[in-house]
């Protein structure tokens, strides 16, 4: 079972991902958070294998979150979520250590397959 944490400032998106992950036989919801302000404490408390990380969030954004996690937990896989195919931000996330990205327009039923490829 793959433990997945979600970071997204959009409450509806967080709740939708949480519900979908909870229904999956291959995935387990580890936690959902609106930004990366406490990401190191969140990760220490929830032990995710994968983090779905929004790029744009208030307080501490996803790019900063990737750097923090990868410095202390390099084994955790991070997939960036973005509403736009923004090459500069995606490239910056990959440089910071993210393993990949998905567009938020990806139908949820395709999510497990995308995560299982990691």
Q: What would the keywords be for this entry?
A:
alpha/beta; 118 residues; single chain; Rossmann fold; 41% helix
Give a quick rundown of the structure.
With 118 residues, the protein is an alpha/beta fold.
Secondary-structure blueprint:
Elements: E1 2-7, H1 11-23, E2 27-33, H2 39-46, E3 50-54, H3 62-72, E4 77-82, H4 87-96, E5 100-103, H5 111-116
Parallel strand pairs: 1-2, 1-3, 3-4, 4-5
Helix pairs in contact: 3-4
Notes on the structure:
The protein has helices at 11-23, 39-46, 62-72, 87-96, 111-116, and strands at residues 2-7, 27-33, 50-54, 77-82, 100-103. It is α/β, with parallel strands linked by helices and 118 residues long. The protein has one domain: Response regulator (Rossmann fold, 3-Layer(aba) Sandwich). Helix 3 packs parallel to helix 4 (87-96). The protein is globular and about 30 Å long. It starts with a strand and ends with a helix.
Tell me the β content: 15-25%
Q: How would you classify the helix and strand content by structural class?
A: alpha/beta
What top-tier CATH class fits best? Alpha Beta
H/E topology pattern? EHEHEHEHEH
Number of domains: 1
Count the E strands.
5
> Which residue ranges are poorly predicted, with pLDDT under 50 across at least 5 consecutive positions?
none
Based on CA atoms alone, the radius of gyration comes out at 13 Å
Shape: globular
Q: What's the end-to-end separation, in Å?
A: 13 Å
CATH superfamily: Response regulator
Q: What is the fold-level CATH name, i.e. the topology?
A: Rossmann fold
* Helix residue percentage: 40-55%
Strand order of the largest sheet: 2-1-3-4-5
Supply the CATH architecture: 3-Layer(aba) Sandwich
Number of helices: 5
Mean pLDDT: 92
* Largest sheet: number of strands, sense, barrel closure: 5 strands, parallel
């Amino acid at each position: 079972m793959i433990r997945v944490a979600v970071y997204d400032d959009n409450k509806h998106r967080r709740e939708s991902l949480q519900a979908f992950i909870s229904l999956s036989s291959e995935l387990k919801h580890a936690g959902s958070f609106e930004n990366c302000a406490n990401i190191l404490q969140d990760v220490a408390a929830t032990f995710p294998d994968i983090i779905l990380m929004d790029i744009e969030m208030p307080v501490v954004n996803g790019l900063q979150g990737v750097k923090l996690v990868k410095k202390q937990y390099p084994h955790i896989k991070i997939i960036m979520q973005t509403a736009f195919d923004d090459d500069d931000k995606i490239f910056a996330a990959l440089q910071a250590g993210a393993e990949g990205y998905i567009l938020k327009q990806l139908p949820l039923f395709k999510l497990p397959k995308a995560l299982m490829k990691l």
